[in-house]
Amino acid sequence: MDRDVSDPRGVAVSAHATGARTAGSRQGVTLLGSTGSIGINTLDVLAKHPERYRVVALTANTQVDRLYEQCQRFRPQRAVMLDSDAAGRLAEKLRLAGVPTEVSAGNQALADVAASPEAQIVVAAIVGAAGLLPTLAAVRAGKRVLIANKEPLVMSGGIFIEEARKSGAQILPVDSEHNAIFQCMPNGFVAGGSRPEVRRVLLTCSGGPFRTWPADRLVAATPEQACAHPNWVMGRKISVDSATLMNKGLELIEACWLFGLEPEKVEVVVHPQSVIHSLVDYTDGSVLAQLGNPDMRTPIAHALAWPERIESGVRSLDLLEIAHLDFGAPDTVRFPCLRLAYEAAHAGGTAPTVLNAANEIAVQAFLDHEIAFTEIAQIIEATLDRSGTCSADLLSTILAEDEKARRLARELVHAHGQARQASARSTGGGA
Ligand code: NAD
Ligand code: MG
């Protein structure tokens, strides 16, 4: 039976059109970024429910072998790779193995597959701004869109919410904190709608691998150390974001869009155990929280089946084993990225787009050993200082500002490299 979810602003969203299951039918699922950490966890949940879901399309950047294995196992109708050489290699391997998956390549193919009518559910699990256009295509096509890929929301959250309202798409958060908040929201809550009875949300933050490191040690932090997260196994970009606390900064902006909140109503609380995934503070003094073992299969399973619940493979929480939960305030002096994100959220317009673009460039430069860990924040701050802020109503403006900020951040990375070489020469270190 069809069930209508009412938007508080009066837009009726048909759960049938956007992914609710009719008796006996299997829902088609497309995974954007199936070879990454979220993609693999999603396939793990889907594999437990072959009677509910069928995989329609899988996509990846360049990882041929992993996508080949996934195609062999899940037999999607289509596979898309960004890279055309990689797509050619995949097509050949599949042909030799007799797997009838149709392979295509490029950005347009990604957007096409995201909007294709065979899938009712699209999982947005590409990393970074690269996911913007395919995810937006899924939203415009009225899908149930499971959003792990937070960067597009940071860049253009207003456009996503507006397009979902027009198409009837259901945006469901997979980011564990936002999924937790969604679970604690009142019945009938729809992404982008604001609720007056919500006083604020508390976004929990593990503190990352450098939570206890003194400031003077951070300068020498290596990519390997930054990617060794204490509680979660994730892709390299989000792992570095967790180490700088930029991940929490991006999540703060993501929360503002998803839950219709001003930035001052989103409070970050350091909680090293990552057991409470976030909380909602109501006007009557009630605080609702969602708890669970830190395992992304829980929010993925929740968003796939919502409003039903399905088995995810995650073991039950053992509170006696955990014994105690700790909380603290974030340190924005050692971790300035969180301060920069609050400032960008307050500035609004294209400031979050610039923040995100500069962060993507700086994180890649750090992973490539071009800059030190502490230079990530410096490059983002300098990019923000040199960029104006304009209205973020048009996608064309957002994409142009994103491109400009990336160019600027690259120049700054280069300038930092030259300054380091000059200082090494003057101290004899470059000899
Ligand atoms: P990952 O690096 O492990 O995987 C990224 C996926 O995107 C891969 O399949 C890759 O092939 C694909 N990809 C990369 N660049 C691409 C491009 N230019 N075009 C098309 N496809 C491309 O990343 P991840 O850890 O799975 O994270 C994915 C997204 O989910 C990120 O935005 C991250 O912030 C968010 N997220 C991740 C976690 C987590 O636990 N890993 C938790 C919350 C949110
Ligand atoms: Mg998160």
Give the arrangement of secondary structure elements.
Layout: E1 4-6, E2 12-14, E3 27-32, H1 37-47, E4 53-60, H2 64-74, E5 78-81, H3 84-97, E6 102-105, H4 107-115, E7 121-124, H5 132-140, E8 144-147, H6 151-167, E9 170-173, H7 176-184, E10 198-205, H8 215-218, H9 223-226, H10 236-244, H11 246-259, E11 266-270, E12 276-282, E13 287-291, H12 297-305, H13 319-322, H14 336-347, H15 351-367, H16 373-386, H17 395-426
Parallel strand pairs: 3-4, 3-7, 4-5, 5-6, 7-8, 8-9, 10-11
Antiparallel strand pairs: 1-2, 10-12, 12-13
Helix pairs in contact: 2-3, 4-5, 5-6, 6-11, 6-15, 10-15, 11-14, 14-16, 15-16, 15-17, 16-17
The structure holds nicotinamide-adenine-dinucleotide (NAD) and magnesium ion.
Provide an overview of this structure.
This protein is an alpha/beta fold. The chain has a domain at 4-174: Rossmann fold (3-Layer(aba) Sandwich), CATH 3.40.50. It contains 17 helices and 13 strands. The strands form three sheets. The protein has a seven-stranded parallel sheet, sandwiched between helices. Helix 16 packs across helix 17 (395-426). Residues 1-17 have low confidence and may be disordered.
